[in-house]
């Protein structure tokens, strides 16, 4: 696989930049003679040192392919001579123990360059690659890149996932480990493919995980978890298990609570806090970096959204049928199924999901189901409004334009693909929505709501030192929490403060506003939207 990759990269390089390819190819040919002589001397010296320590090994020079040279020149902004003057040697031994002994021999022959050693044997790459990498000061100070690996590791590095088939029988003990790592890598790719919604999403996931810059963190039990650089506590949770990721609510890094979006660093100990009733937050997709976390979150949310859409669709359909003094239970099953097939759907749940997501209007479905009834108008459809409690999930959202709260008079709009969007009845957008009467429905708040909602306030305050702390203390005294706070200076004396707050209902917001008006520096408080 490695040989195939290099060949494809060189062919692509030749077709994309033919002139650069030829110039680089000629330069490599001119320098090859002297280079082969130096690499031969390095091979002989390292082979002799290994033989003196009774280490059976194959030592070979490793040539760089043209695309690899060009890519390094571009990424590190180095001239050709500096890139090509690095000599590369590969040492292949029989066992893992010999790998580390060979490393000692190499470091004894040539001084190692600090910070250039990587142990991929103790901590393999995500695709199963294992090897010791070190860079040494060679003759005349020229760097020598040395890779040390066992025969088994060499098979995995060169053949890649094909090692799974090459050693499928498992007769060769040398192939068992390569086969196991290849199988794990393949299973990981298959899991990504299963969770991905489409081929583009799958390709994006594979690109993220193929060759990342790694960090290594520890579980509370001391197990090492490899993650790409920039990974967060959520990525760590999904690396443990998808169930851990789906139910995580917090994390401790080195025994200190941190936000879930906090990037992790090598050497840290990470503990995930879970709650069985918790579920993934769509906002996590904005900061997770691993393919497993991203695909697991998307998979869960898609499945969850469908379940929520089916429940909402059933409520909307029941509401539409109630206007005709009937219900789902009273409809002939065959009649319903025939109409479902006529609409090109696989089953009744697909229809309910479409209604819940706003892709189909319940009233129009009822009209086709009951063709002998009078034409349906919004006033005919269900005398009782749909009750909203705030826990319906992603299929019921709240307009950011007006941010409705329990206690406000509200109206619902069926937005295609999103479900119901709840607005205050005096929202500026409601007038335009009412041009589509089939799309809006009567809704009311459930008598008791158990979740917090977001309210937006605008404050005009006197610009004094400590005023934000005073405002925060006043809000905290009302048992409310500040989500975000932004300020903009109007002139030298006045500042406008924009707040997003968590409140229970309209009465709770009124308490917050009254408390803020007691702050001397607050000149004006107004609810936005």
By DSSP (H or I, 4+ residues per run), the number of helices equals 18
Radius of gyration: 32 Å
- State the secondary-structure class: alpha+beta
What is the C-level CATH assignment of the largest domain?
Alpha Beta
- In total, the number of domains comes to 4
Distance between the termini: 59 Å
Mean pLDDT: 82
In CATH, the topology of the largest domain is named Beta Polymerase, domain 2
Tally the beta strands: 19
| CATH 2nd-level architecture of the largest domain | 2-Layer Sandwich
* Global outline: elongated
Major sheet description:
5 strands, mixed
Estimate percent helicity: 40-55%
* Major sheet strand order: 1-2-5-4-3
Low-confidence stretches: 169-175, 375-382
- What would you give as the CATH superfamily of the largest domain? Beta Polymerase, domain 2
Beta-strand percentage?
15-25%
Which quaternary structure do these chains form?
single chain
Describe this structure in words.
This protein is α+β, with helices and mostly antiparallel strands. The chain has 4 domains: 2-166, Beta Polymerase, domain 2 (2-Layer Sandwich); 199-289, Ubiquitin-like (UB roll) (Roll), CATH 3.10.20; 299-445, no CATH class; 453-527, ACT domain (Alpha-Beta Plaits). Helix content is 43%, strand content 21%. It contains 18 helices and 19 strands. It has helices at 2-16, 18-52, 66-76, 80-84, 96-109, 151-159, 163-166, 173-195, 199-210, 233-240, 242-246, 291-322, 333-342, 348-356, 362-369, 430-433, 467-476, 506-516; strands at residues 57-61, 87-93, 118-119, 132-137, 143-150, 214-218, 224-228, 248-253, 256-258, 270-274, 386-388, 396-398, 410-415, 419-424, 440-445, 453-462, 481-489, 494-503, 522-527. The strands form 5 sheets. It has a 5-stranded mixed beta sheet. It has a 5-stranded mixed beta sheet with strand order 11-15-13-14-12, covered by helices on one side. A 4-stranded antiparallel beta sheet has the order 17-18-16-19. α1 (2-16) packs antiparallel against α2 (18-52). The longest helix is centred in the N-terminal third of the chain and has 35 residues, at 18-52. The radius of gyration is 32 Å and the shape is elongated.
């Amino acid at each position: 696989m490695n040989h195939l990759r290099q060949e494809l990269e060189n062919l692509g390089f030749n077709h994309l930049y033919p002139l650069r390819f030829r110039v680089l190819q000629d330069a490599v040919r001119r320098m090859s003679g002297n280079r082969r002589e130096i690499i031969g001397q390095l091979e002989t010296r390292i082979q002799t040192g290994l033989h003196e320590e009774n280490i059976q090994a194959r030592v070979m020079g490793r040539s760089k392919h043209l695309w690899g040279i060009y890519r390094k020149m571009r990424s590190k902004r180095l001239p050709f001579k500096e890139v090509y003057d690095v000599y590369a040697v590969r040492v292949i031994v029989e066992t893992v123990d010999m790998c580390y002994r060979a490393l000692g021999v190499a470091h004894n022959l040539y001084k190692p360059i600090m910070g250039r050693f990587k142990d991929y044997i103790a901590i393999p790459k995500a695709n199963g690659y294992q090897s010791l990498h070190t860079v040494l000061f060679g003759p005349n100070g020229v760097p020598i890149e040395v890779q040390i690996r066992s025969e088994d590791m060499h098979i995995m590095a060169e053949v890649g996932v094909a090692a799974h088939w090459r050693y499928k029988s498992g007769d060769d003990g040398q192939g068992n480990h390569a086969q196991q790592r290849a199988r794990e890598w393949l299973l990981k790719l298959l899991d990504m493919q299963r969770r991905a919604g489409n081929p583009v999403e799958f390709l994006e996931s594979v690109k993220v995980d193929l060759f990342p810059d790694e960090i290594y963190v520890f579980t509370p039990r001391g197990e090492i978890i490899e993650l790409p650089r920039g990974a967060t506590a959520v990525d760590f949770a999904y690396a443990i298990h998808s169930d851990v990721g789906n139910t995580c609510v917090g994390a401790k890094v080195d025994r200190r609570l941190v936000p879930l979006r906090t990037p992790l660093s090598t050497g840290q100990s990470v503990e995930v806090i879970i709650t069985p009733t918790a579920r993934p937050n769509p906002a996590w997709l904005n900061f997770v970096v691993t393919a497993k976390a991203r695909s697991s979150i998307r998979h869960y949310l898609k499945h969850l959204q469908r379940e929520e859409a089916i429940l909402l669709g059933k409520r909307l359909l029941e509401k539409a049928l109630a206007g005709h003094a009937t219900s789902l239970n009273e409809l002939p099953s065959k009649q319903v199924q025939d109409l479902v097939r006529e609409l090109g759907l696989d089953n009744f749940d697909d229809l309910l999901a479409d209604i819940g997501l706003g892709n189909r209007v319940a009233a129009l479905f009822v009209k086709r189901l009951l063709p002998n009834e009078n034409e349906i108008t919004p006033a005919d459809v269900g005398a009782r409004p749909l009750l909203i409690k705030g826990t319906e999930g992603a299929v019921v959202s709240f307009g950011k334009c007006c941010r409705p709260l329990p206690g406000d008079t509200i109206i619902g709009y069926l937005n295609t693909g999103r479900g119901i969007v709840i607005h205050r009845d005096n929202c500026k957008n409601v007038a335009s929505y009412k041009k589509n009467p089939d799309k809006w429905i009567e809704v009311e708040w459930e008598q008791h709501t158990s979740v917090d909602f977001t309210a937006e306030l605008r404050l005009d305050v006197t610009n004094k030192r400590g005023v934000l702390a005073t405002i925060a203390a006043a809000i905290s005294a009302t048992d409310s929490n500040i989500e975000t706070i932004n300020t903009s200076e109007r002139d030298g004396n006045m500042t406008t403060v924009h707040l997003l707050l968590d409140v229970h209902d309209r009465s709770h917001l009124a308490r917050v506003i009254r408390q803020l008006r007691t702050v001397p520096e607050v000149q004006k408080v107004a609810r936005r939207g």
